[in-house]
Design a protein that fits this description.
- It is built from 5 helices and 22 strands.
- With about 400 residues, the protein is an alpha+beta fold.
- The strands form 5 sheets. Strands 1, 3, 4, 6, 12, 13, 14 and 22 form an 8-stranded antiparallel sheet that branches. Strands 2, 5, 7, 8, 9, 10, 11 and 21 form an 8-stranded antiparallel sheet that branches. A two-stranded antiparallel ribbon has the order 15-20.
- The protein is flat.
């Protein structure tokens, strides 16, 4: 019986381990696994361990938080390299912009195993970049960028990110059938085909370079009616000399030049005449340029594949610091990613919001009390000033009587 229990325990441990390639919840020893970049020197910001000002659990919700305004941030971790050939790849982590971010990144980058961690910076080659990016009201998007044959390819769809102060779960799923899913808070917000939503490959079809629109091709749906003639009384000028205007008596033609009456709008002017339109009997429709197969197009059923996945990093710039990253996961199991998300973010979101709302309520009450006290102080000062004015007035009246 004990042997059976031991076998189940060992099997469960192995099975659990195989569910992910990398997992990080940023415990007290996280610095042993992560390397800080020094590429930006004095402009390099510092990540600190923190659960923030509001959270679900003070210890479990500790992540890495940006701590200095207007700084570059670089922190990375390596793991046993692997290939996602024939497998699903899932990248997932939580982001909390508790500083109500105005401009800064919240994304992660996946690198190959040869990443120079100490020198990681914005131009370091990466495989995938994924996560939220906010800068002003115009940029509030989820980046999904793939590197393909040395080029970084941006998604052609606009995926809006969360821009509040709470923790949110971001998940990217890339499948071996060249499809993808993006989730926020374990809910699908976008999906599709890699080839359709990124410019991995040239277009399958191109316009035939040999095809030309025939010279007699008429695309005009309507034409001027050749039978329509402009009325004889239509050709009136837009402006005429004012018939009521008279040359001033003191006008000197030699000194002032020849007098001309001012111009006024012509009441008989009917505007520019245009013949009426009739259907064009020669109309052939809009000419459509014929297409041919693109000779430069070669299909690739391995757009999804990377042969060397070996590191993850946060390479960011933030104007206003305070973002917290946590619950990082790289796995080949969609179900495990969802389960892990529910066990971390899912347990955090409600008590975190409750704590924040309580803090807001307390701050509101404190502010009201301070405003009330300030008003009382202002009223008391006003009464004192009025009392002093009355005393000064009485003293002056007594002095005048003397």
């Amino acid at each position: 019986m004990k042997a059976a229990i031991l076998f189940v325990a060992l099997f469960g441990a192995v099975f659990c381990k195989d569910k992910f390639y990398f997992k990080e919840e940023f415990g007290d020893d996280f610095a042993d696994r992560w390397v800080e970049s020094t590429a930006k020197g004095a402009e390099q910001g510092k990540f600190v361990s923190s659960a923030g000002k509001f959270y679900g659990d003070a210890e479990k919700d500790k992540g890495i938080q940006t701590s200095q305004d207007a700084r570059f941030y670089g922190l990375s971790a390596k793991f046993d390299k692997f290939s996602n050939e024939g497998k699903t790849l899932v990248v997932q982590f939580t982001v909390k912009h508790e500083q109500n971010i105005d401009c800064g990144g919240g994304y992660a980058k996946i690198f190959s195993s040869d990443l120079e961690q100490k020198n990681m910076h914005g131009d370091s080659p990466y495989l995938i970049m994924f996560g939220p990016d906010i800068c002003g009201p115009g940029t509030k998007k989820v980046h999904v960028i793939f590197n393909y044959k040395g080029k970084n390819l941006l998604i052609k769809k606009d995926i809006r990110c969360k821009d509040d102060v709470y923790t949110h779960l971001y998940t990217l799923i890339v499948k071996p059938d060249n499809t993808y899913i993006v989730k926020i808070d374990n809910e699908k917000v976008e999906s599709g085909e890699l080839e359709a939503d990124w410019d991995f490959l040239p277009p399958k079809k191109i316009k035939d370079p040999e095809a030309k629109k025939p010279e007699d091709w008429d695309e005009r749906e309507n034409i001027d009616d050749p039978e329509d003639k402009k009325p004889e009384d239509y050709d009136k000028p837009e402006h005429i000399a004012d018939p009521d205007a008279k040359k001033p008596d003191d006008w000197d033609d030699e000194m002032d030049g020849e007098w001309e009456p001012p111009m006024i709008d012509n009441p008989e002017y009917k505007g520019e005449w245009k013949p009426k339109q009739i259907p064009n009997p020669d109309f052939k429709g809009k000419w459509v340029h014929p297409e041919i197969d693109n000779p430069e197009y070669t299909p690739d059923d391995e757009l999804y594949k990377y042969t060397d996945i070996g590191a993850i990093g946060f390479d960011l710039w933030q104007v206003k610091s305070g973002t917290i990253f946590d619950n990082v996961l790289i796995t080949d199991s969609e179900s495990y990613a969802e389960e892990f998300g529910n066990e971390t973010w899912g347990e955090t979101k409600d008590p975190e919001k409750k704590m924040k709302e309580k803090q807001d309520e307390e701050e509101s009450k404190k502010r009201e009390e301070e405003e009330k006290k300030q008003k009382e102080d202002d009223d008391a000062k006003k009464d004192d000033d009025e009392e002093e004015e009355d005393e000064d007035k009485e003293e002056k009246e007594d002095h005048d009587e003397l």
